[in-house]
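Re: your question from the hallway

Yes, I did run it. Sequences:
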Amino acid sequence: MTEPVTPTLLYLDNVTVSFDGFRALNALSLAIDHAEMRAIIGPNGAGKTTMMDVITGKTRPNEGSALFEGMHDLTSLDEAAIAELGIGRKFQTPTVFDMHTVEDNVLLALKDDRRPFSALFSRRTASERERVDALLERVRLTAHRRRKAGELSHGQKQWLEIGMLLAQEPKLLLVDEPAAGMTDQETADTADLLRDIAKTRAVVVVEHDMTFVRDLDVKVTCLHEGSVLAEGPLDVVSANERVIEVYLGR
Amino acid sequence: MKTQSLLDRQAVIVLSLLGLAAVLVPVLNVMTAPGSALHISDHLVPLLGKYLSFALLALSVDLIWGFCGILSLGHGAFFALGGYAMGMYLMRQIGPRGVYADPILPDFMVFLNWKDLPWFWYGFDWFPYAAIMVLLVPGALAFVFGWFAFRSRVTGVYLSIITQAMTFALMLAFFRNDMGFGGNNGLTDFKEILGFPLQSESTRIVLFVLSAVALAAGYLLCRWIVTSKLGKVLVAVRDAESRTRFLGYRVEHYKLAVFTVSAMLAGLAGALYVPQVGIINPGEFAPANSIEVVIWVAVGGRGTLAGAILGALVVNAGKTWFTGALPEFWLFALGGLFVFVTLLMPRGILGTAQDAWTRARARLPSRSAPNALPHAAE
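Structure:
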């Protein structure tokens, strides 16, 4: 293994992704530290989801590099390998396994040997049970553990998916619009949960809800047309002329 | 966690019925007088054995389609390859008793003026070798096919189409005399298996019982897979493939593993089919055959295993009756059945029965689901 090139956890440098000439990402550079929480804002089509696709190996950039822990080149790994490195991703619409029970959802996400043969002979251990219990408690789904995930409410599914992310024990969580479709109380609770998670892990949150972003109270990056428009505390970014022009509106 | 046991009530019922059939059919065939109402005639025994081999084929399709969302429209190819492997053994057992009395070459090779046995026929005179090939050839084809298809992330209807193309290509290839598998006549005129004459009543009974045993074993294997964590991952792949991938599972490895196991089960089914019907020809590769298997599974109830067995038995029994009584209407009946099931019983016979059972139980006063929250608007 080579020496880390950079001390930051996630390092995107000059990343460009084009689809048929359309530049979804345009020389995007971004650095996320260990146990840092970052909010990403920006208008539709700014490249937020494409950026997550690049980090998680779903999309290969045409140019640029993406380094994890300074030594893993994310552009040469597939989704499964990147997930095993410790990058978890929550989708924009909550995506859980509807036909499985809530606890099975978490169990499948637990960090474990991912190969088919180990899965065939896998037996649940007491420590796994404890971890599932603790995670369900944390995302407040203990009472629903035996229900099918498909029966949960939208907000509960969002939380279940966050619980599954935590079960992977990732170093970096990418969370796409966690507050979408939630009530005000759920939104506030979600902000608390994410802040708590960010004490030990890095969290990147993409969000449109400015109240929620304000609740998070972290450094903000505003993307526009595939590159960084402004970066800094929310007050500074939201005072930026260009940000007001393209995103917040006057 | 709700542990799914290998032997739930449904599994016990399936295995008991298969055990019962394995005992009752021979008894009713041998012990009762022809003409008695309970008598199972000599020609019915291999017919029932054929149904059981079809049920095993349906089971193999349900394993991948019902639990992993892989809709194979080419599983008949694996069935036929297993059948050909068995047929090659049976051909070589004929020995000098063929029409041309060549001790080595099967009749069709003599007829084609071939001087030597092609290399791929070597070893098929030895039963254990043929038995291994019955599993290995379909398994290897599925592995190579799946390796490319799943790695390139071919899914859904595209995968179905290329499985269909695969079986069609194999059918065209096997129709050719030069392939060395008897061309469009296929392999037939079998005499005996392991020294037992295929025409004899006792051999047929043993083959029937073996089919029941193989079906039970295949069912248990599938149950083991779907009740393990592997099975949970397969369902996860079926319902949310990218979610599974982002959790760190190599989806293509899971698909490849289960597709290969499924193809081997289909090959075993083909090997049991051939000695009971006495012929294997390229028609078995016909795309329509593979589609019919999918209909059996859909009719019985996809994703239930037991439903696949039920569907195969019901549809084939119906086919036998129809083709005897109203031959010209069979295809209409089959098509109508599929439309009926798709529209009115999307979960098949077994799924619909299960739903009715659950509803009936829900009406009884019982513990209800905790905190049944209303669904949020989405």
